[in-house]
Design a protein that fits this description.
The complex is a heterodimer of chains A (655) and B (412). By secondary structure, chain A is of the alpha+beta class. Helix content of chain A is 15%, strand content 35%. Chain A has 11 helices and 36 strands. In chain A, strands 1-6-8-9-11-12-14-15 form an 8-stranded antiparallel barrel. Chain A has an 8-stranded antiparallel sheet with strand order 22-21-24-25-16-17-18-23, with no helix packed on it. The longest helix of chain A is centred in the C-terminal third of the chain and has 17 residues. The radius of gyration of chain A is 25 Å and the shape is globular. By secondary structure, chain B is an all-alpha fold. Chain B contains 11 helices and 2 strands; from the N terminus they run αααααααββαααα. Chain B has a two-stranded parallel sheet. In chain B, α1 packs antiparallel against α5, α1 packs across α9 and α3 crosses α4. Chain B is globular. Chain B starts with 9 loop residues before the first helix and ends in a 12-residue tail after the last helix. The chains are: A alpha+beta (655), B mainly alpha (412). At the A-B interface, β8, β9, β10, α9 and α10 of A face α2, α9, α10 and α11 of B.
């Protein structure tokens, strides 16, 4: 069984929305010490000494207008870069609340077992796909660690009595960004999760839908439902000058990104991976599929995308990165694909494979006739046009006629040029893609320890024993440079990675192993998995195609020696709440902890002590209820907040 | 308090406490309604300084509304202390002038404007003679006339002020301290559940009850100390700011006393039908069910029927999260829903309609089922309606739904 088995229900929408708070996403001016989860005051910038600010002034400064000089490797000084863009220290959506939805996405096709095309007459077609999640980056600085922590998923459509009902509803597990394709307009990324049976509720008065019934029976026989989707061409609608005007007018304005969603709801058998597709993975014929080509000077041949700003620049007209992207041959812009053999059918998952022509022009780039090959064996013609993509949720099926398809799969364009090639090494995936660890001082030296369970596959089956090199990779931040203070113009920087260490882990024949991780330094890390058979790694990781897990190690703050009488509002505000008040101001609109130019009423905050104590509890970390939304509260500060909450409850007891 | 011995019997005390509860409850709804109608940044017609002013007023009124909720909770504790069920029901709006003052003020839901703030100011007027007496009589006459409600003759009022009502309650308890049963302390909602400020201790003696009553009078209705932090002073300041500042429309022009359920609508209510706005009817109904769920959750807190401390804490937390994320969010959303038909040019609003009487006390499991159904309905409305913000309300409900999942194994 695979994640592409039928029944499958496809859906699409053009107004998916994500509304993250962005103050921690851009670190051109260094606002944050990510490793220690602390605000930098004054913020740091090369070529200028910014002043220390009060919390009130800091929050106001976050919404001031400045200019980014969009730097690029070819022009590090920004002397000839045309990419000047209005910006803000708080970035493009300071007041975001992290909500992510599918908008009005609706079911547009139902694949039943045995069908060779999706049904469009099933009563499930047209049902709204309601999805409600919080977008949270494990590593706020980079673009490869986004996770969607969901509160609810449901299909809403007419029941047997024609009234709208929730045909099925449940709570998805955390979905992680995987298989990005930054060459699609404004970038694209896929997410996958499951909705376990324990949370699923099926409508009593369901319509006579074969698709719904098949999903229900399949889920009951397995572990639940599987939800896989791609968000693409997501654009923020408001330009910074307008945001500035709205902030100046006193509006807590939102600037969500809105774009397209396409996906599949299927059956999860309870065993398969929950966050990543498994099958015969095809990647572009570049690293890591082939050895890196040093002679090409890779750094300048392809745009570098690591931080959020890199992706923004890539699709901002006038920037060098955008020019570079536009100059690349279309053949290099294809994203990964997965193939699964089902009986006499080869099913291709092209969810994020083929790029579109331009923003809001969802016609696919024309590659002529695209064909699939197994070694030298022709398998079939692959439809990839917009209509097929949208009506079939990016999945196409090719009939097999007994051909030997054991040779490496490849996708080729009209000139038979290879667009994608099946990887020649084990697929290494993990459902522990976003791991949070806390530094602990047990044993004297603060350290964090944990494991990441990886599963390895060879052509979709558990891999035979092999050696897995594991590199620990950390962010390497570079300060932006002040080109001018009046007006405030900052040369953008780039996020890079540095390899800190490497170990080798033996993966047994089961294909599963726990990869240990240990550090004595808090920070944002990636575990880079380099399976035996993979070419010698390029120095600059390509996480759009590589295998990795994100690990966030939160610092150790010990407040255990602070006596109760010192754990006052002022103390806990300074140590904890001021960070959130400045970086995530939306939270102050619900619990008024300020600063003074936001709702600020410590007495009312204290009245929320019991619910705050509950919401910061570790047991809610994997839920949409968890506070803070950004999950940056380390264990020491968590204990401090809970202790303050306890004190409020105790102090509220009259003597 | 008075030195005279109270002639009030137990039934009379219960009636007075129920009246006090209904009063505090009605004030809470009226203040919240006005706060919900206030414009915010991004709404049309506001300059930046007006936006700041509206935000300031909103915080002030919301804070006063929270204190009225606190008073309702104190009154409920008093009822619980003498072995009675708290009175969480009340008449629907508008309510003709009742018996709390010689000023015949109706209780009504109205948009925030000078007239509304003046009415609020009169509700909270000092318990000593002053310029406000005539001003409030004039205000009451104008408001009653506008609402088409009967004016209660002054001599019909059994209390000269709200303060007098509380004084008589205090006198009755002072004369009959044994009506307070310490065994009921565990049913009360105290700072052990919610860190109220000022702290709330369980009522086990007359002295405890007296402290509760003093607190209500000090903060709000009927105090003679009108220069302090009392509600009168805050409303007076807002009234001055409204009157002295540049003329602008600080709020969305909602209908007065909206009603969505014909069976519950009282005389003077503005019944909103699908002809006026299908969205308003749907969201208005959703709001009322959310409001009822909140009251039933509070009702359960006061009548725990064997619930453990942990379960009561879970319910209290659910209620605390529900107020800003469901009640406030839906209330604000409704005041932005435009109406057509006979009410074209105006906007809807939360009606706070309640069935009479309230349903019987719900179990935690029933409360969860109600919350689950409410959440599902909100999600379905995001499909049925094209109203910005509905998605966020549904998301809020979906997010806090787990808070209502009170562990059931410990329920006796």
């Amino acid at each position: 069984m695979s994640y592409l088995d039928k029944p499958r229900v496809g859906f699409s929408g053009s107004d998916a929305m994500t509304n993250p708070s962005t103050a921690n996403n851009e670190n051109v001016i260094h606002l944050l010490d990510y490793d220690n989860v602390e605000l930098l005051n004054p913020p740091l910038l090369q070529g200028a000494e910014l002043k220390e600010m009060s919390d009130v002034a800091y929050r106001e400064w976050m919404t001031t207008l400045m200019t980014y000089d969009a730097g690029n490797p070819a022009d590090p000084a920004g002397q000839s870069d045309p990419g000047w863009a209005p910006a803000m220290p708080g970035y493009w959506n300071y007041y975001g609340d992290h909500l992510t939805t599918f908008g009005t996405a609706a079911v547009n096709g139902v694949w039943m077992p045995g069908d060779d095309a999706p049904r469009t007459t099933d009563p499930l077609v047209g049902a709204r796909v309601a999805f409600d999640a919080k977008l949270v980056d494990v590593d706020p600085a980079d673009t490869f660690s986004s996770q969607l922590i969901s509160a609810a998923f449901s299909l809403v459509g007419p029941g047997a009595g024609a009234d709208l009902v929730q045909l099925v509803a449940g709570i998805p597990t955390i979905a992680h960004l995987r298989w990005t394709n930054f060459n699609r307009p404004y970038g694209a990324g896929t997410f996958q999760c499951v909705i376990p049976n324990e949370t699923l509720r099926w409508a009593d008065d369901a319509p006579d839908s074969a698709g719904l019934e098949a999903l229900r029976k399949g889920a009951a026989a397995g572990g639940g439902l599987m939800l896989r989707y791609c968000l693409y061409d997501m654009q923020a609608g408001i330009q910074m000058p307008e945001m500035y005007d709205r902030f100046q007018a006193g509006e807590y304005a939102w600037n969500p990104k809105v774009g397209f969603v396409l996906g599949t709801i299927g059956v999860w058998n309870g065993v398969d991976m929950t966050t990543a597709p498994v099958g015969r993975v095809m990647q572009p014929p570049s690293w890591p599929n082939v050895p890196p080509a040093p002679e090409k000077a890779a750094a300048s041949a392809t745009p570098h995308v690591a931080g959020h700003g890199d992706l923004e620049r890539l699709h901002t007209p006038g920037t060098k990165d955008q020019e570079l992207l536009a100059s690349l041959p279309d053949q290099t812009k294809v994203g990964p694909a997965v193939a699964v053999v089902q009986g006499n059918m080869l099913v291709l998952d092209l969810l994020t494979t083929f790029p579109e022509q331009a923003p809001r022009n969802m016609a696919k780039v024309d590659y002529g006739e695209v064909t699939l090959w197994a070694g030298d064996t022709f398998v079939g013609v692959v439809p990839y046009d917009q209509a097929t993509y949208e009506s079939q949720a990016g999945v196409v099926e090719l009939p097999l006629f007994g051909d030997d398809i054991s040779g490496p799969l490849s996708l080729r364009d009209q000139y038979r040029q290879e667009l994608l090639r099946e990887i020649g090494f084990p697929l290494v995936e993990t459902d522990d893609r976003g791991v949070y660890l806390d530094m602990d001082d047990e044993g004297g030296t603060p350290a964090a320890r944990g494991t990441v369970r990886v599963r390895a596959f060879d052509k979709g089956e558990p891999a035979q024993a092999f050696a897995l090199r594991v590199q620990v990779v950390a962010d390497e931040m570079h300060l932006g440079v002040a080109n001018s203070l009046e007006p405030f113009v900052v040369q953008q920087n780039m996020l890079h990675w540095k390899v800190l260490s490497e170990t080798t882990v033996q993966v047994p024949d089961s294909g599963e192993v726990d990869v240990p991780f240990e550090t004595t330094t808090a920070g944002c890390y990636k575990l880079r998995f380099l399976p035996e058979g993979m070419p010698v790694p390029a120095p600059d990781p390509n996480f759009a195609a590589e295998f990795y897990a994100n690990v966030r190690v939160l610092p150790y703050h010990d407040y255990s020696g602070v006596p109760d009488e010192e754990i006052t509002w002022d103390f806990v505000y300074r140590e904890v709440f001021s960070y959130y008040g400045i970086l995530y101001p939306i939270m102050s609109l619900i619990i008024p902890w300020g600063p003074d130019n936001l709702p600020n009423d410590p007495t009312r905050v204290a009245q929320f002590a019991a619910i705050m104590k509950q919401a910061v509890d570790r047991k809610y970390l994997g839920t949409a209820l968890s506070m803070p939304i950004t999950r940056e509260l380390d264990e020491g500060k968590r204990r401090l907040v809970q202790r303050w909450c306890d004190l409020q409850l105790q102090q509220a007891q009259p003597s | 308090m008075s030195d005279q011995a109270s002639a009030v019997d137990r039934a009379g005390l219960v009636t007075m406490l129920q009246q006090a509860s209904e009063l505090e409850h009605a004030l809470t709804c009226q203040y919240l309604y006005a706060a919900f109608t206030l414009k915010a940044g991004g709404d049309p017609g506001l300059t930046p300084s007006q936006t700041m002013l509206c935000g300031h007023w909103n915080q002030q009124i919301t804070k006063i509304a929270a204190q009225e909720m606190y008073h309702l909770m104190l009154a409920s504790n008093l009822l619980t202390a003498i072995g009675e069920r708290p009175r969480l029901s009340r008449s629907n709006f508008p309510q003709p002038a009742q018996h709390f003052s010689e000023i015949p003020l109706p209780s009504m839901l109205a948009t925030f404007d000078a007239v509304t703030v003046h009415r609020f100011l009169c509700w909270e007027k000092p318990d000593v003679p002053g310029w406000w007496d005539q001003a409030c009589l004039d205000c009451a006459a104008a408001v009653n006339e506008r609402a088409g409600l009967p004016m209660l003759a002054a001599q019909d009022a059994p209390y000269s002020s709200i303060g007098q009502l509380y004084t008589e309650i205090d006198d009755a308890l002072k004369a009959n301290p044994d009506w307070i049963d310490p065994a009921n302390a565990a049913k009360q909602v105290t700072s052990a559940l919610v860190p109220f400020h000022p702290p709330v201790a369980p009522i086990t003696t007359y002295a405890d009850a007296h402290d509760h009553i003093e607190e209500i009078i000090r903060e709000g209705e009927g105090t003679g100390d009108y220069d302090s932090q009392a509600h009168f002073a805050f409303f007076h300041q807002i009234y001055d700011e409204l009157g002295n500042g540049p003329s602008f429309e600080p709020s969305w022009p909602t209908v007065e006393n909206p009603a969505y359920d014909p069976a519950l609508a009282t005389p003077g209510a503005t019944l909103i039908t699908a002809d006026d706005s299908r969205a308003a009817v749907a969201l208005g109904g959703l709001f009322n069910d959310a409001y009822l769920l909140l009251l039933r959750t509070l009702d359960r807190l006061f009548q725990p029927d064997g619930d453990s401390d942990e379960q009561r804490q879970a319910l209290a937390n659910a209620a605390m999260a529900f107020m800003p994320l469901a009640i406030k969010a839906l209330g604000i959303l409704l005041t932005r829903v435009p109406l057509g038909g006979a009410h074209a040019g105006r906007f809807a609003g939360p009606s706070f309609e309640l069935p009479q009487p309230l349903p019987s006390v719900a179990t935690p499991a029933e409360l969860y089922e109600d919350m689950e159904a409410l959440t599902a309905r909100a999600r379905i409305l995001t499909v049925q309606l094209d109203v910005d913000g509905t998605d966020h309300v549904a998301s809020h409900l979906e997010t806090i739904l787990p808070l209502f999942a009170v562990p059931t194994e410990a329920v006796r």
